[in-house]
Design a protein that fits this description.
Helix content is 29%, strand content 20%. The protein is of the alpha+beta class and 346 residues long. Among the domains are: 103 residues; 112 residues, no CATH class. Strands 1, 6, 7, 8, 9 and 10 form a 6-stranded antiparallel beta sheet that branches. The longest helix has 16 residues.
Length: 346
């Protein structure tokens, strides 16, 4: 019986295939500049950059929501906020009866909904107002509704710590943080392949040169607990929420934490991990029926899974929860049997 290819041979064959696809076949000199993740992973590379994670944050040339709404205003807490877009430049102004403070918007965090990170006197601030796609206008930034500013600087935004701002850029961009320090000169907006698939760049460069290259670890190898911790580095783990005491209805945004509260969450079961429902290479699908297959993979082992219905499971068992103080609604990932009038379980 002939043995299969050894691992090194398999890696060489994969490298040769990638080189051929990139134009380096038949003895031609490999052309690394033409070899990208899309050379072998075309579908994922085409769709992922257009997802909310793939966008992550928008720099001045690409702030499309502001381009579509060139003048936005809001009156709140005794101050007037105005965001203007002219000639590819966005500005953020807060004013009261005695003066005004105007700053350029260099970093618009998000995709549809945009919160702005502003620089003032050498420090970073999270804007006190956010653009919300749901209302096509401005509102108080989620979580900042209790802030009562006393001057223009406080009204402009909430000053962030070095750790917080590093976390913000680290999750919304790639190459923006080294260690705990910002490296914005090398920043690429959004979450790209290397952000989640550590070693992807080295793998691609080796493949382009026709050399054996260990592939980055497949996320599909992770069980629920490990994947929850991995995704929770940005989306907040159970440990992060408890340590920072992020309790109350606002923590519905933190899916790994909410999922871990579910009675059906088993750390070693791949059927309840994040990617059992969500493909990170495509935008989140918002039709309830899409997720029935995942629910029924566990709950339809024998007989009828639910006495009430056999479809649209998440419409009942993952209720939609509004975030107080912001025009946003999230599906609660704490999977459970719900009853009318139940308090929010946090």
């Amino acid at each position: 019986m002939t043995a299969g290819p050894r691992p090194a041979t398999q890696a060489w064959l994969a490298a040769a295939a990638c080189v051929a696809l990139a134009g380096g076949a038949h003895g031609a000199t490999p052309r690394p500049a033409q070899t990208t993740c899309a050379t072998c992973h075309r579908a994922q590379a085409q769709s992922q950059p257009h997802t909310s994670m793939g966008i992550g944050l928008e720099l001045p040339p690409n702030q499309e929501s502001l381009e579509a709404h060139p003048k936005l205003t809001l009156d709140a807490n005794g101050y007037r906020y105005q965001i203007e877009r002219k000639n590819g430049v966005s500005t953020y102004t807060v004013s009261d009866g005695s003066g005004a403070l105007t700053l350029p918007i260099r970093y618009a965090f998000g995709a549809r909904n945009l919160t702005f990170v502003l620089e003032y006197q050498g420090r970073f601030y999270e804007s006190l107002v956010t653009y919300y796609a749901e209302i096509e206008g401005l509102g108080i930034t989620m979580g900042d509704d209790r802030i009562k500013p006393h001057n223009l600087t406080e009204a402009m935004g909430r000053q962030t710590s070095e750790q917080e701002i590093a976390d913000c850029f680290g999750c919304h961009a790639t190459g923006a943080v080294s260690g705990a320090k910002l490296t914005l000169a090398s920043m690429q907006p959004g979450v790209n392949c290397e952000h989640c698939h550590t070693g992807a760049d080295a793998h691609m460069q080796a493949m382009a040169g026709g050399k054996p290259a260990p592939a980055p670890r497949k996320l599909g190898e992770m069980a629920a607990e490990e994947m929850s911790s991995f995704c929770g580095e940005c989306h907040h783990t159970w440990e992060t929420v408890v340590r920072q005491r992020l309790f109350g209805q606002k923590n519905v945004r933190f899916q790994p934490y909410r999922l871990a509260l579910s009675k059906c969450f088993l750390g070693d079961d791949k059927r309840i991990r994040c990617t059992a429902c969500h493909d990170p290479h495509v935008e989140v699908i918002r039709e309830d029926a899409h997720y029935d297959r995942a629910c029924l993979s566990c709950h339809a082992v024998s007989g009828k899974a639910c006495p009430k219905a056999d479809k649209n499971c998440v419409s009942c068992h993952m209720p939609k929860v509004p975030v107080l103080g912001a025009p946003m609604v999230f599906n609660d990932h704490n999977i459970r049997v719900t009853h009318a009038g139940d308090p929010y379980p946090w």
